[in-house]
Amino acid sequence: MIGRFFLTPVLDLAAGLDRQLVGNDRRGRAAVVILLSAVVTWFVYVPIHELLHAWGCMATGGTVTELRIDGKYGGAFLAEVFPYVRSGSEYAGRLTGWDTGGSDFVYLATDFAPFVLSVLIGVPLLKLAGRRRGAVVFGVGLVVGLAPLTNLPGDFYEMGSVVVTRVGMLSGGLDEPTAVAMRSDDVFRLLGELAEGEGALGGVGVVTVGTVMVLSAVLAVVFAWGTYWLGAGVSRILSGKVRTVA
After folding, report:
1. How are strands ordered across the β-sheet holding 93-99?
2. Which of 31, 55, 159, 196 is least buried, going by the fewest C-beta atoms within 10 A?
3. Half-sphere exposure of 111 (CA within 13 A, CB side)
4. Are the beta carbons of 110 and 56 closer than 8 angstroms?
5. What pTM was estimated for this model as a whole?
6. Each residue's pLDDT tens digit, 158-184
7. CA 176, CA 169: separation in Å to the nearest integer?
8. Dist. CA 83–CA 65, nearest whole Å
9. Cα-to-chain-centroid distance, residue 10
């Protein structure tokens, strides 16, 4: 059961590649279409992903003052549409000005909101591409369906760290400044800060930091794969409805 839990995305990816390319006399054309579809989807998905972070925050009671989106993903245009969007970012996009009002529910909703697309659209499309030929569908599914896994060291690590640090604060093992400093949507950046002894983490014990990071990473994996499995469940429901109608 555990093996199936972790292997399902890999098997779905393999099934999609097999259906789209193996035995296809026009596999070269299909490969190009898959690549182009994935690239176009990526550039469309990135700003939507970032906007959903903002909307998830606001929908659950938080406030957003600044969302930075890189210019090549439409940051300048979106800045004209949404008052909180700013063009330019060291990342593709990042929510840089937001307030949860101290609510971890709002925090988690903010992190998770973009992955509703993976559950409702991305994973079902990726699974569909394993059953029927459709290079465009497969390209979209690659980007949106696998987003929980590609965001493992980012949004999902942050979700794990929110849960772990909250438990740490409730148990008295962490003070609030340390807990806040241990929450990050970029685990590699956090590791860099730790290596340089920056900010509130400078005086925190190695064992404490290591324990929080390991537990956060474990939860990140569970949350990311769990999200994929939610999408797989939606796919089963949708495919069942299609068979019923047929």
Report:
1. 85-87, 63-69, 93-99
2. 196
3. 27
4. yes
5. 0.90
6. 999 999 999 999 998 888 888 888 899
7. 7
8. 8
9. 17
